[in-house]
Amino acid sequence: SKLLKMMQIRSGGNRKAKFVCAFVAYSPSGEEHVIETEFEGEISQKVSGKSGFGYDPVFIPKGETKTLSDLGAAFKNQHSHRAQAIHALKAVFQSQKD
Q1: For residue 12, what pLDDT is reported?
Q2: What CA–CA distance (Å, rounded) separates 5 from 95?
Q3: 13's torsion region: left (phi>0), alpha (psi -120 to 50) or beta?
Q4: 96: left (phi > 0), else alpha (psi -120 to 50), else beta?
Q5: Domain assignments of the chain as residue spans, ordered by start
Q6: CA-CA 20 to 30 A from 86: which of 8, 20, 51, 96?
Q7: Contact 75, 82 (CB under 8 A)
Q8: What is the pLDDT of residue 70?
Q9: How far apart are CA 79 and CA 81, in angstroms?
Q10: Contact between 87 and 79 (Cβ < 8 Å)
Q11: Lowest-confidence range among 5-9, 58-62, 82-86?
Q12: How many Cβ atoms from other residues are within 10 Å of residue 3's Cβ?
């Protein structure tokens, strides 16, 4: 992985990483809703796993010991930055219905 090679060159031990997702949506009444979420973790020492794409084989979510690729699509679809943003957006629109 190009990212792992770049991190070998870089001095220091900081392997922290995060994905960020931002959504902007408008309600039928024209109200703007801005949702920003973060998915924190760290970069692994080696590539691991075959599922997913991009940085999934080298990204270890906070609180986990396996890469996102190893954890699989079901985990990613429930916990990723995009999933968090969609859940937050659904909650906003659900609260407006009530």
Answers
A1: 66
A2: 46
A3: alpha
A4: alpha
A5: 2-97
A6: 51
A7: no
A8: 96
A9: 7
A10: no
A11: 5-9
A12: 16
| Token duo for residue 1 | 């992985």
Provide φ and ψ at 19, rounded to 5°. Answer: -100, 145
Give the whole-angstrom CA distance, residue 20 versus residue 6.
Answer: 21
Please give the CATH number for the structural domain made up of 2-97: 3.90.950.10
- Measured in degrees and rounded to the nearest 5, phi and psi for residue 10 equal -70, 135
Instruction: Give the model confidence (pLDDT) of 22-79 as tens digits.
Output: 999 888 888 899 999 999 999 998 999 888 888 999 999 999 999 999 999 999 999 9
- Mean pLDDT calculated for residue range 73-89: 93
- Round to whole Å and give the CA distance between 59 and 1: 12
**Which residue has 């990483």 as its token pair?**
17
Check residue 53 and give its pLDDT.
86
d(CA 44, CA 36): 25
Residue where the block lists tokens 């309600």: 27
